[in-house]
Structure formats: structure tokens, C-alpha cells
Amino acid sequence: MGVSRRQLLIAGGTLGGLGATSLLHQVFSQNKALSPQESVALNAPVAQSPISSPAPKGLTAPVRGDVRIVVISDLNSQYGSTTYEKEVDQAIAFIPDWQPDLVLCGGDMVAGQKNSLTSDQISAMWEGFDQHIAAPLRQAKIPLGFTIGNHDGSGAIIQGKMRFQKDRDLASNYWNNPRHNPGLTFVDKAKFPFYYSFSQNNIFYLVWDASTDRLSEEQLSWVEKSLASATAQSAKMRIAIGHLPLYAVAIGRNTAGNVLANPDKLRTLLEKYHVHTYISGHHHAYFPGKRGELELLQTGALGSGPRKLINSQQQPFKTLTVVDINLNAESTIYTTYNMNNLSVVDSQMLPRIVVGYNGWVLRRDVNWEDLTPQERKT
Ligand SMILES: [Fe+2]
Hints:
Layout: H1 5-14, H2 18-30, H3 36-43, E1 67-72, H4 86-98, E2 102-105, H5 119-139, E3 144-146, H6 150-153, E4 157-158, E5 161-162, H7 165-176, E6 186-191, E7 195-200, E8 203-207, H8 217-228, H9 230-234, E9 237-241, H10 263-272, E10 277-280, E11 287-291, E12 294-298, E13 319-326, E14 331-338, E15 343-344, E16 353-356, E17 359-363, H11 373-377
Parallel strand pairs: 1-2, 2-3, 8-9, 9-10, 10-12
Antiparallel strand pairs: 1-13, 4-5, 6-7, 7-8, 11-12, 11-17, 13-14, 14-15, 16-17
């Protein structure tokens, strides 16, 4: 029995599964007629393709990758606040519908970093965080990876002393309470919750303490040892997360102290160990960037105070990003929602390059060669 190419294409469009695809490939490559058995195989009912696109009702639904992460950041409101703006509560209610493997939070989960706040007030903020964010995720059985922000437990050192030791102690108390187990498979939690590593779905996650602009020598040697480890290097991908970004991207944050010191040195370290993406918060302005071999996901704020990107006229907006990962291709697709109106952010509307005081970051779909001479000069 002969089979035309068109018939096969129609069949291919309705069939899923490796067996049928393989059979179609053989037929095309050998240009032969199908045997009765092959014909039966092609006409047999085949399970639907495993493509799925879970999303909250009414929102754009991206195709799920091998691994899906929901990335949120900068959730807090004013100092001492125990509640959250409505976009935060809305996002937490939505998250199970995206069916993520993991939620990552870029820090500033509570609103400390003010020494007049009492221990009771700080504990009440963490209780509010638990009630609004962590407990609903635990109940939905979604693991929560996070990094400590300057408002959670700043590591600032003044005259040899930790300026916000109380914040750090209470953050540590909260996260080390077994009732608040974030559901992660830790690789190294000796300095948890400040710096630690975990693995999930064949991805190694390194969390560093970028609650200030400096990583101590002790922390840097831990970072290098962790990234060089067999566990990290045998994973299919490596992702790092910290609160401060490497390079400035937002108006009002374009100063020393609001980015990590020595960004090129840190980037080289991450590149050396094939870290795919560094995720950061603090700037409150979404920018899907890259520089050198490293992708830079600068998250927007979900809580109060979204900011404008440097050299952009767009009004600030709150965001949440769904990251779908293809493990074999080591590639990621971002679907970022403007949480003010629930539309998807068109990355083409963002600047092609952002130039802050400590360096430039390209939008991740743009190459240096694509820039105009004018853009290269900015
Ligand atoms: Fe911050």
C-alpha cells in the first residue's frame, strides 16, 4: 500500500509519541511503501502528545518545559508591615495553577532593616510572611527556594559588627523552624538560610548571601568549592540566586551599594563553572539580560515600589516570571506577567541594552553585533 507524503503529514499532525515519529522518519528517509504491520502502527490510537500548558484561568498559558520555576521577588511593603499588597496575595493564589516544580524568591520577603523595629515586630512580620506566602506554598506542596534580601537580614558590617544582627537572628529562627520547612533537597545547608545549595530535577541551585554588596572571602571560597563539586558539575544545569544584581538596571538603584562589588570578577567565577543564569532582586525592574556567557534574570518587584529601567520611558509595573526549562538544550523560556493587569510583558518593548554606572547588560535576545553604533556608545 502506498502512502503519500501529504497523508503522512496529516497522520504526523495527529499522532504523538516517539514510536510514530520514528516510523514517519523511516518512511520518509527510505521512501518505501508501508508494510501491513507499519500501516496498523500508524493507524493505531496513540497517546496524545505530552504537551501541557497549565496556567491560572484566563491568563496566557505557556507550554510547560521539562522543569518549571515561578520566580517572584521583593514582596514587602512599608517597614514593619505584616501584610502584603494585593498583587502578592493574587500571585500566591495563582501559583499552584502554573504547576511549577519550584518557586524561587529573590529576597525582601519582609520589611526590616530598621533598628527601631522590636524583636516582636520582626517576628510578627515573619509570621505574616508565613501566613501569606510560605504556608500556602507548603500546603500546595511546592518547594520554595529563596535568598535573603537587605530587608530580611542585611549582612552590612559597620566597624566590624553586623549592623542588623537582630534581623539576621530572627530570619534564621524563622527558616530553621521545622514547621517552616521549605521542601528543598539540600546539598549543603551549613550556612542556611544565608548561603546554601540544593538540587532538584537535575538542576543545581546555588544561593549566596547578596544582602549587601560584598561577599566575604569565606563565602567566596564556599561558592567556588560548591560550584566545582561533582554534584554541581554533573547536574544538567546550574542556577545561582542572590538579592543584589551584578549590574545596575533601575533608576534609583544605579549607585554603589545597590549592586554587587566586583561584578566582572563574580561573573567570571559563575561562567567558569558554567552557571546558566544568575537571578537577582532589589532593583524592582524586570530585565531579562545577559552578559558574556551568563544570563541575568533581573526580577521585577511583586510587592511595593516597582521602578523604571534605566533608559526606558515605560511606567513601572509589578511582575512575576514563569521560567520553563529545556534540560537537554540547556535553554529557558521566560513568560513574565505584568501583575498590575495580568498581561504578558513583551520583551521587545524593553531596552536592547541597559547601561548602569558599573557596566552594561544586553537584553538576552540581542547580541553585541546587533547594536547600532549609537547603542554601542551609550
Ligand atoms: Fe532590596
